[in-house]
Amino acid sequence: MKDELFADLLASTREMIEIENGERTPNPEHMHSYNVVDVKAIREAAGKTRDELAKIIGTSTETIKSWETKRRNPTGPTQKLLRLIQTNPSGMIAILEEDNKVASRQA
């Protein structure tokens, strides 16, 4: 390994340790944050079990569990759907349940 590359790597490691120890603040342009939906809070506000919510939004109970335990995060259209449910739990759940009933009758 070239000395210059090693020196950069060592400096980065020291910076990381200082940030972890609260001795240094990271540069804002290097910080990333993610706005993750709280699936458990959404589900509880809707008054649904994991099984019920999974059926309503068309996913598995295991996926709901993964989102609630933060092993995985909903993305794309599912995240948008959950945000809609979050804004109006009872109204959105009623719409989705009615849509599922219509789809079942058509099948």
Any overview of this molecule?
Residues 39-92 form the HTH cro/C1-type domain. GO terms for molecular function: DNA binding. InterPro entries: Cro/C1-type_HTH (IPR001387), HTH-type_reg/antitoxin (IPR052359), Lambda_DNA-bd_dom_sf (IPR010982), NadS-like (IPR047761). The protein has 2 domains: 1-32; 39-106, 434 Repressor (Amino-terminal Domain). The longest helix is centred in the N-terminal third of the chain and has 18 residues, at 3-20. It has 6 helices and no strands. It is mainly alpha-helical. Helix 2 crosses helix 5 and helix 3 crosses helix 4 (61-68). The chain has helices at 3-20, 39-46, 50-57, 61-68, 76-87, 89-106.
A few lines on this structure:
Helix content is 67%, strand content 0%. By secondary structure, the chain is mainly α.
- How much β-strand is present in the residues? under 5%
Which fold name corresponds to the CATH topology of the largest domain?
A: 434 Repressor (Amino-terminal Domain)
Number of helices: 6
Helix content: 55-70%
Biggest beta sheet summary: none
Count of domains: 2
The CATH superfamily title of the largest domain: lambda repressor-like DNA-binding domains
Strand runs, count: 0
**Series of H and E elements:** HHHHHH
Distance between the termini: 64 Å
CATH architecture descriptor text of the largest domain: Orthogonal Bundle
Look at the helices and sheets and give the structural class.
mainly alpha
Topology overview:
Blueprint (H helix, E strand, L loop, with lengths): L2 H18 L18 H8 L3 H8 L3 H8 L7 H12 L1 H18 L1
Give the tags.
107 residues, mainly alpha, 2 domains, Lambda_DNA-bd_dom_sf, DNA binding, HTH-type_reg/antitoxin, HTH cro/C1-type domain-containing protein, transcription regulation
